[in-house]
Write a structure and sequence with these properties.
alpha/beta; Ubiquitin-like (UB roll); 4 helices
């Protein structure tokens, strides 16, 4: 009889301990559930999509890499994400955003690309936009790029890189001009051998096949010399070993 009583008491005690353990674990899990997310670096006027998946997850068990990939897929303007766990229940999200740098003309619309040629916004003339609604639609202040082959509108999607070397060269050119105080109005990629850049009344011809750094250096020297001497340039051709300069 005593053996049976002891067995019953042992089972009851084990059950009680298991219940208390489960209850304690449940309470601890609730205490460490994410209930606050602090976001920095994101445009306050634009909604950051995908955060609903993060709330109430267990902070210690959170997979940072999975969350980064999830947020990047939902928000193509994200360039980099840094996550920091702040116990007991706060997640810090620091974001670097992609910003439009040039506008590329494509078939039936335009792409806005950042400095890495990643599609930030797509604007269609047929009502098929893929865009962040907070971005301005006109893009008139951005350099315009025209490519000699019309890229199909649906060939690239938001967050994808336009992997054409001529486009990358044109963006590098626009970036270089900006760094020395000039703004490219339009860049025409006429062929795989020639890029025509319009800077106000000045036309500059580049060759994608010639060293870009050499051409940039030559252009900087020419602009500095002739601006200093107040000479009006009409065109500069940098496709050859010796630049060809034409005045008005």
């Amino acid at each position: 009889m005593r053996t049976i009583v002891r067995l019953v008491l042992g089972v009851a005690l084990a059950g009680m301990l298991a219940y208390l353990g489960a209850y304690s674990f449940s309470q601890a899990k609730k205490a460490l559930a994410i209930d606050e997310i602090v976001v920095t670096g994101w445009d306050a006027e634009t909604s950051l999509l995908g955060l609903e998946r993060v709330y109430r997850q267990n902070l210690p068990l959170l997979s940072q890499e999975q969350i980064k990939q999830h947020l990047a897929r939902r928000n193509p303007r994200i360039k980099q994400i840094f996550l920091t766990k702040q116990y007991p229940n706060t997640l810090l999200v620091d974001i670097t955003m992609r910003t439009p740098f040039v506008v590329l003309s494509v078939a039936n619309g335009t792409y806005k690309l950042d400095q890495e040629a990643v599609v930030v916004q797509k604007l269609s003339t047929t009502g098929q936009d893929e865009q962040d609604q907070q971005l301005p639609r006109d893009g008139s202040q951005l350099p315009q790029i025209r490519f000699y082959q019309k890229i199909p509108f649906n060939q690239y999607h938001l967050g994808e890189r336009v992997d054409l070397s001529e486009i990358s060269t044109a963006i590098e050119l626009a970036d270089f001009l900006s760094s020395i105080g000039y703004a490219a109005d339009r860049i025409d990629i006429d062929s795989s051998d020639m890029i025509r850049c319009y800077i106000g009344d000045l036309t500059v011809l580049f060759s994608p096949r010639r060293d870009g750094a050499v051409q940039q250096y030559e252009l900087k020297e020419i602009l500095g010399e002739y601006v200093k001497n107040e000479k009006a340039l009409k065109s500069v051709d940098l496709r050859f070993d010796k630049p060809v300069v034409v005045f008005y």
